[in-house]
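Below is a filled-in request sheet from our internal design queue. Each sheet records the structural input a requester submitted and the sequence that came back. We keep these sheets so that new team members can see what a complete request looks like end to end.

REQUESTER: design group, bay 2
PRIORITY: normal
MODE: inverse folding
CHAIN LENGTH: 457
BACKBONE (tokenized):
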């Protein structure tokens, strides 16, 4: 009876990922991801409002400092999630059902073990890390308060994000939407009460983040242990297969690099602000980086959720025409959507920034001036995300890593060490669009070559 059930589930996999028309399949995955992440984006936007209006510029400055911890959690969850979901998706495409299930279970336990170790190390050296990130004065104390609470949820965030990637390959996008929406809604209410009614300060923001991560983790674990899925997590999976773990790292490393590299940039920029700017510039960067760019990147990642399972499954099944089709569709719709988003941000800049910052006209104007320099070419830079996601999905890890490094390491770091010396704070902001443009050229080159190769297969 069990085998019949699993065969039925597998036939569903084959019918959808392997045979359904690419465009509606891509949109089904992307829209469910946008809606699911949409609630978390609402939570992120609300968090910006709560911190900016309930705590003030010091709170926004602290968010700018601690934001790398979010990125590190996302980077680890992405590495394990992309690696395990891609490996499992390819094995499903090859008909190796039990091997796919084992990959999911082993990577889940590995994610728990690894993220707990990282959490302990960060808490031990927390103050030194925050100073390295650029924290100073009152902002350092506020950042310490936030991080001590936030790190309690760090392992749950990493593992929960990993399972969210896996639920896409498990053909459960609707369940993924529910799992992201419910905890975020609860956190929204709790954070409002903590900051505005109970005067909990920056700790209220950290508790809100903790509720989201724990709630999503709990619901995802319930599904993969007790739900109707061929990708069940079992206790025997605690005995790790090092070959699977190594392959997972190999596939997911590019995703880790593309997520963690902004952390390097954030640390460098925060330290440069300490040299060339003033304390309010930390708040300017906090609004742009932790909220505006967070929203744009979340949308880009949602389109990546549409690309990854379809590309990996069909590549494993050697249906290369379908792989090429989903790649082209992903590029076209992701870039067009991001252009619309950036245009809307510029048109409604005053309203958006006042929402986050509150009635502080000088800070709103400073942030608007910086934002006009900082984000206009983000849609071009997003090509690196598309390229990296695609090459991870088809196990071309060298190309994925190259595209992961161009935008936030190879091009922007040299610019950050040159332009601020010539232009001051304006030089810091203008580095990002220059890096976006140059990295886009590299991504287009690799993607055009890949499209031609798929054409010949």
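RETURNED SEQUENCE:
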């Amino acid at each position: 009876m069990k085998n019949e059930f699993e065969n039925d589930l597998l036939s569903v996999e084959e019918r959808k990922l392997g045979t359904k028309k690419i465009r509606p399949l891509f949109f089904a995955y992307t829209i469910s991801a946008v809606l699911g992440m949409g609630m978390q984006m609402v939570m992120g936007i609300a968090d910006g409002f709560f911190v900016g209006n309930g705590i003030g510029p010091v709170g926004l400055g602290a968010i700018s400092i601690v934001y790398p911890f979010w990125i590190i959690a996302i980077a680890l969850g992405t590495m394990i999630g992309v690696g395990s979901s891609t490996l499992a998706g390819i094995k499903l495409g090859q008909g190796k059902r039990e091997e796919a299930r084992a990959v999911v279970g082993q990577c889940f336990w590995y994610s728990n073990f690894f993220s707990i170790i990282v959490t302990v190390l960060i808490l031990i050296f927390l103050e030194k890390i925050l100073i390295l990130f650029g924290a100073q004065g009152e902002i350092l104390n506020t950042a310490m308060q936030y991080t001590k609470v936030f790190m309690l949820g760090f392992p749950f965030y990493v593992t929960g994000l990993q399972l969210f990637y896996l639920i896409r390959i498990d053909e459960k996008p609707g369940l993924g939407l529910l799992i992201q929406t419910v905890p975020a809604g609860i956190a929204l209410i709790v954070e409002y009460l903590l900051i505005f009614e109970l005067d909990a300060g920056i700790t209220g923001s950290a508790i809100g983040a903790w509720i989201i991560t724990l709630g999503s983790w709990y619901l995802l674990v319930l599904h993969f242990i007790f739900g109707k899925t061929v990708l069940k997590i079992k206790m025997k999976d605690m005995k790790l297969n090092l070959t699977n773990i190594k392959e997972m790292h190999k596939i997911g490393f590019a995703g880790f690099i593309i997520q963690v590299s902004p952390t390097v940039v954030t640390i460098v920029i925060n330290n440069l602000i300490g040299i060339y700017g003033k304390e309010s510039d930390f708040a300017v960067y906090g609004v742009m980086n932790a909220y505006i760019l967070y929203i744009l990147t979340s949308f880009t990642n949602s389109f990546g959720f549409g690309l990854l399972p379809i590309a990996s499954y069909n590549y494993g099944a050697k249906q290369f025409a379908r792989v090429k089709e989903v790649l082209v569709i992903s590029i076209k719709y992701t870039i067009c959507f991001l252009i619309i988003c950036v245009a809307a941000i510029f048109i409604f800049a005053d309203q958006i920034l006042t929402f986050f910052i509150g009635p502080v006209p000088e800070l709103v104007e400073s942030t608007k001036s910086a934002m006009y320099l900082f984000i206009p070419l983000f849609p071009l830079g997003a090509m690196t995300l598309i390229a990296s996601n695609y090459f991870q999905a088809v196990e071309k890890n060298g190309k994925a890593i190259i595209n992961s490094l161009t935008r936030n390491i190879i091009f922007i770091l040299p610019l950050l060490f040159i332009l601020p010396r010539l232009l001051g704070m304006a030089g810091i902001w203008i580095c990002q669009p220059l890096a976006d443009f140059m990295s886009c050229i590299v991504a287009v080159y690799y993607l055009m070559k890949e499209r031609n190769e798929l054409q010949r297969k």
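SHEET NOTES:
- Confidence is low (pLDDT under 50) at residues 1-14.
- The chain has one domain: 15-456.
FILED BY: M.R.
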